[in-house]
Fold this protein.
Amino acid sequence: MKRKMSVSGAFYPGRAVEIERYFEHFSTVYDEKKSLPQLKSRVAIVPHAGYIYSGYSANIAYRVLRQSRVKKFVVMGPSHKIGFDGASLCDFSSYETPLGDIESSASLHLAIKERFNLPCILEAHQEHSTEVQFPFIKHYIEDAQIVEIVYSYADASELCQIIDYILSNKDCGVIISTDLSHFHSLSNATRLDNICLEAIENIDIDKLHSGCEACGKIGVEAVLLSAKKFGLKSQLLDYSTSADASGDTDRVVGYVSACFYE
């Protein structure tokens, strides 16, 4: 069973050439201002809005992830369409993108399925928070294999156990998808988002719960818990808002990318 695209042409272009132009533009703009951190990271937090809004931030994280040469990733994101208990894992043979299909990691899927007994809720996998990551992975991670996990009413401690298991294998990595605050004024958005940024940068769970607004907050908490256990360090890569692209400072969405490394 192939995981078909559901937001192609909306959150990201439906044509490969247009996606590649985005990636080239994002990288060129970044390289004119900064040098890419030379880190070997296999864990990242990335945003999931339309590429015109959050693609620049996400692009940095995938360029960093590429440096680790890890090929197998679990992509974990919150469900925006339906509510359900826990997390969903479906047995897809591949994941469709305009750049070509990404293979599923059958071995990683089976290992997670057997260990954590996650159900498959097919409707949950029409989810943009995970899907917008797939073209980045196809472009930047040669011969990538992935597994998609979508969660709804889950506990961070449950997701943390899955992340711990993935990170115990040095050949696997984790991509956590989240946006930050939604639809505040720019000043309020940056105030709230700074709480999230500080929590991520310092791997501080208490700070995360002191006012951070993020649709994938459960996933962020889970990866911070795992980072503490594995003794990982954190580096913020980029922070931006929708106002940077739209000019609308009244209803702003925040975006962050970050990586974790030994």
In short: The two ends are 36 Å apart (CA to CA). DSSP finds ten helices and eleven strands in the chain. The chain has a mean pLDDT of 98. Residues 68 and 205 are 26 Å apart (CA to CA).
